[in-house]
Amino acid sequence: MNQTAPAPAAGSRRERPRHTLAKSADNPAPSGDSPERRLDDEDYPAYSMGRAAEILGVTPAFLRSLGAAKLIEPLRSEGGHRRFSRYQLRLASRARELVDQGTPLEAACRIIILEDQLAEALRINEELRRRD
Q1: Which domain CATH number covers 59?
Q2: Distance between CA atoms of 118 and 115, rounded to whole angstroms?
């Protein structure tokens, strides 16, 4: 059977370019990157591996497996630690839901990617309809 490469991670269209997460006097936050703005940004990588696992009620190994399956690709801090966004936590939560229902992990990830792509296509269609 000829298998195609997996689709890009569902979070990839929303993920910010890889950048340094830590801000310092030598590397200040860019204008417009205020703490208030980051609180509203669902793509801001605010959660550590441990905190993300705790919030979702999963193990860090489960979150790593989602990365290996290309569902989510967490950003890395300067120290190399994985950092997750609220959007990625929603995807991981959906994956856990499907896996808990008996869906194999790889299939659950594919389902979520397709759901995300469909939602994006519907959003674009609605936007185009409003323009007409």
Answers
A1: 1.10.1660.10
A2: 5
